[in-house]
Amino acid sequence: MPPQRGGDRGSARGSGNPPYTRGGGLPRGSGPPPRGGGRGASPAGGAQGGAQAGRGPVGGAAHVTTIAVRRPGYGTAGKQLPVIVNAFPLTCPPMTIFHYDVVINKGDEQKLPLRLNLELIDRMQSKTYREIFARCAASYDGRKNLYTAQPIPLPEDRKFLVPRDDEPPAPGGPPPKMYTIILTEVAQISPQTLERFAAGLMSHDENVTTALTAMNVALRMLPNLRYPFNIRSFYTDKEFKNVGAGLEVWRGYFQSARWGVGRLFVNVDISTGQMYQRGPLLNILIDMMQDTVGQNRRITPETLCQTNNDRDRMLAHKQIGGTAGVKVVNRLWRGPGKPQPKLILKVLPETARTARFTLREGGEMTVEQYIKQTYNYNLRFPHMWLVQVGKNSKLPIEICDVIPGQLWKRQTPPNQIREILAFATQKPPDRLRSIQNSMNILEYGQSQYLEAFNMKVTEQPIKLNARILDAPRLMYGNNATIAPRDGAWNMKGKKFIRPSTVNDNWWFWNLDQRARIDNIVEGLIEGAKETGVGQWDNNPLVKLENVHNRPQGMAIVQKLDQLFTACVKENQGNKPMILVVLLPYAMNNELYQTIKYLGDIRWSVPTQCMQANKAIKGNAQYFANIMLKVNVKLGGVNVIPDRRNVPFLMDPANPSLVLGADCIHPSPGSEMRPTFAAVVSSVDTNVSKYYAQMRPQESRVEIIADLADYTKIAIDCFRAYRTNVEKVGNPPARLIYFRDGVSEGQFQQVLDHEVTALKEGCRRHNIAPKITAIIVGKRHHIRMFPERVQDSDRSGNCPAGTIIDDEVVHPTEFDFFLQSHGGLLGTSKPTHYTVLLDESNMKADELQHLCYSLCHVYQRSTRSVSIPAPTYYADIVCSRFKNHFEPGMLTDLEHTSGQGSIFSGSTGAKPKGVTGELLGTWKQHFSMPRDSQGRAMYFM
């Protein structure tokens, strides 16, 4: 999945960023009685136990308002499956929560590190002002918010002076640095707030947000003081692995207080943290630089000692200096106490042999001489750069050690992804065991911060009854149907429902001289015959082009352009129906992006790339999978759901237009790129063929800017296809909008802006279809495990189709967790669906089955996928935004964006993101496929 999506879907409301307040609405009435025995139907709260588990009236009390759709009832379809959820009951007796604003060193514009802020607050209440905080242990989020269960007896000026260090100053030494902490009470949260909200008896408001945030801060206070942390997770080195490129990964733990139906719970999960590798800085720097430059040349200490190699120095600075935030200690330190970690500010062009400084007693000395005199150490690499670790402090790289537990805050190096995933992947029983064992590390019973709020966490996870939905039957050619089993099916002997036509005109380009292609061509022809994809010539136009050791960028563009022109001339001026390209064994992304740009944009020809190492070993199944992609790129349709399974979705008299939408934001370190928004839309009655649109928009803006235009064009395409191909002309009666990547705090924005834009796009066609808007969320930490071994699939996961819409879902709004795919590796993650709007008033079973059915029509797979196909397509289109720019143009645009040119105004300051005139430049160089190529599913 692409990086940098939206917020954390699992716990955005507890993150300290208040969501939008809820609007008005009327209740839908109560739903069916509870399923299963032993659960009360009335979620009343006890004084000590909070709200009891079980259902109250569906949708909550009459006065309760919501953002999303009120829950219309609970689903009943499917057979029951007992599961364990990684959620632990949380109880908290009613009490007043006191909320304080925190200011540290007022007037100091420098933002202090979170770790230092936490240490100062901890020192303030546990040592310096222990008597004041004896009755009210305070929980602090590291920035502005502090919470207690008792009022703090504040001094008149509300100021607390706290020293930087615990240790007293050395005799005759300077006094300890003091920090001023100012506390101001800003709110008191009334008792029973969360209890009533979980019971469905009150609306979500600012008090609910503050109360839940206070609980989360209390949960995280103790581990955040002890371990490296990152927002909602902390990490320990009890389990860690060196993955290369200067990185190691640590096992960590995610925890978040959440509300369920009639109860509160703590969601606990396993997390993985990427850290700078501990140990000698020189070794780590070489590993990092070597991974960056690749195998083109070897990085050694000797090459880093070349003082005229400024390019390498700048690369080293990017890896460990400035924003990288690497802290080191002097390995040779002989002073009293432990050496203080120092932050690397710069990698300097000076060396230990050339850098000189003035001694306090007079005279000058080089850094090399000082190291020898002070530590009796002869530097091995005196010609290597120095690092600046303070205003006037410089250290040789070879005597620095990287301290453990420093989080890597940038994008994961591509070469390390496989190793990190191997470490992070756990089979379901192992993951559940790790989660249950985490109670020993989380130490809920020993935390004075939880004790201050009388919060108690039950150390046994919640067990509940999930349901397994029946998979939809799928239709192939000649009215053949298939019933998926365990989220998969075999189409052997079946032909596509709507095969495309090739008419003997296809080309094959071999870009790897070492590959023998006879078997590959035969396999493609046989795969086409088996699936019904056109008449493939046994003797296609074959060309061999060696791209090994050839310059990339414009050189390869010109070479491939010349090859294409020559092939057109040889083919009597005709373009091919499909161009198949065999990529080299050492395939790189730049070559792939070049071919896709040329094929989709410049030549307007469908292209199908294959990697030589896979195609050479390809069997009949491999080439059948290639045909899954080829057929839809040529305008065909592979499979559709049986209309009898989803009559609401495939009603010819009331056709549905299905849209999937997503955004991809610049990854860390790519600030000078815009956000790209993609919308795909169905064009056929069977909601299986889609049209894609994408545009750049302002950096890091999640709400889709031009959605009314997207919608208008989607309706144009829908009407054109149905009129010209299906020979029917009625407009869409329903519009179903699947939106990926938005956090809970952005739901109101989606309703206010995106749903309004959908209606505006429809208004431009003078139609008003019934709109259903559904948020598709993957950024959460809810996992479900089969309680009985015999109920699991072959991977140990819950079977495909497992759904939960009770107990750990929202107290009043219509949401559910659906695991629509069969497990392969590790623990499967269910998808979280939240229904923001439903003008069709579907029942719970209808809408849940609609989502499940759309997970089975992802056209390039014979397995159900984890999210509905239109959402998956939008995700793919977003992730391939680079294919829409001429090769080399992205680098040029980013370089221009950061130069303080005309886009930065007269000051020449570096712009913060892509907006205004600069965004217009990005749009000018961005291209979408045209004509028939644009109407096909080129992105497959």
Automatic annotation (TrEMBL):
Residue ranges with Basic and acidic residues bias: 1-11
The organism's place on the tree of life at top rank: Eukaryota
Ranges annotated as biased composition (Gly residues): 46-59
Piwi domain sequence ranges: 578-886
GO molecular function, one term: RNA binding
Region Disordered: start-end pairs: 1-59
Domain PAZ residues, every copy: 288-404
Family: Belongs to the argonaute family.
Protein name: Piwi-domain-containing protein
Source species: Dacryopinax primogenitus (strain DJM 731) (Brown rot fungus)
